Fold:
Amino acid sequence: MSIQMHDLAGADPALRFSPYCWRTRMALAHKGLPVETIPWRFTGKDAIAFSGQGRVPVIRDGGTVVSDSWTIAEYLEEQHPTPTLFGGATGRAHARFINAWADSVLLPAIARLVVRDILDVLDPKDRDYFRSSREARFGMTLEAVQEGREQRLPAFRELLTPARLVLRAQPWLGGQAPSYADFIVFGTLQWPRCVSRFSLLAADDPVAEWQQRMLDLFGGLACAAPAICADAG
Amino acid sequence: MSIQMHDLAGADPALRFSPYCWRTRMALAHKGLPVETIPWRFTGKDAIAFSGQGRVPVIRDGGTVVSDSWTIAEYLEEQHPTPTLFGGATGRAHARFINAWADSVLLPAIARLVVRDILDVLDPKDRDYFRSSREARFGMTLEAVQEGREQRLPAFRELLTPARLVLRAQPWLGGQAPSYADFIVFGTLQWPRCVSRFSLLAADDPVAEWQQRMLDLFGGLACAAPAICADAG
Structure:
């Protein structure tokens, strides 16, 4: 029986754009584990109440329920050691830093570039919740958050410097092969890629070149996924 | 025969403050390798010309010369696999991200808080070189770079968020034991600690608590090292 995963979806149930769910999708594909994804909306708290919390991803693996993308990655690594996501305890410990960096630096910066665009792809029933919860968080309208993003793009790209330096020295954040570190950063970048036509990366950025390699992994899993791409305009 | 290491020193030859040399010192101690350090000054390019470049750390291990702290760490791991610095290829690949983050985010931010203080600890013969090379880099006087640092301290502390999040979840950046990731970030923080009385961290910061544990490692190696500490005032 394949793993079931509740996965954030837009008005189009095929549009999947959660940065955390993408980390899990890629980790599952890396392990070669079949998954049945269940489209979930922000207002569908009841549908995942069985997990004891209110956010996705949530996976159900036989009788086991696991939530939180990092906890899921640890669970998958323990249940299915190969191919490895972390390359051992130290690799996992170091990946936690990359996870913390993605969550605390990359993700908030991306939000300030595309958060208003997200509204347009959401299921109508999610829109009021999304607008009011995010506007409370930012202390301003979504339109105001996103305003002037063209001018803020160079500063955003600067934030990716650590990843860029690494990708100049090695093909993957995981070294000679992709690891969960790749899925963390790639998953985070899938979020804007899926919801916005606003291009975050210059085409000749080593991060963009790596992103293309990531899109090609697992038979083009992430590439084939519906997205409101810059080049789909 | 013990490894020799050229190590940046101040006017007091016992004052060692290079963020890169501290990474190497800690890595050598982790491996239990005895080291003979040779005080080096910025203007002593001739003394390390044998390494084919002009920066420290440089180590000489028998007939082998290695420079650049990251390259030295890889060399030590290869020559002396245990105790491990990286925990395998993936752990090393992930540590490279932390190294790139320390170099591109942490180090420049620290420089803007203490660069003028460094001048006071330097050997007189290094001062003109240091001032002119750094002022060219910043495009302003060292005094101007450092000005208003109290106001910039909260933003600096915010930059440490990824490390802080990790250290709330595990005792070391390396997980249950220190790894080279710890030496990277700790070494970077030894730099301001050794040259300035300006305190960068709040005492109750998990990063400060971890820093104290790091200072206690290897018989208090880094704690015993001469430093112009905030609390030495």
User: Anything to note?
Assistant: The mean pLDDT of chain B is 96. Chain B touches chain A through 33 residues (CB under 8 Å). Chain B is about 55% helix and 10% strand. The longest helix of chain B spans residues 89-121.
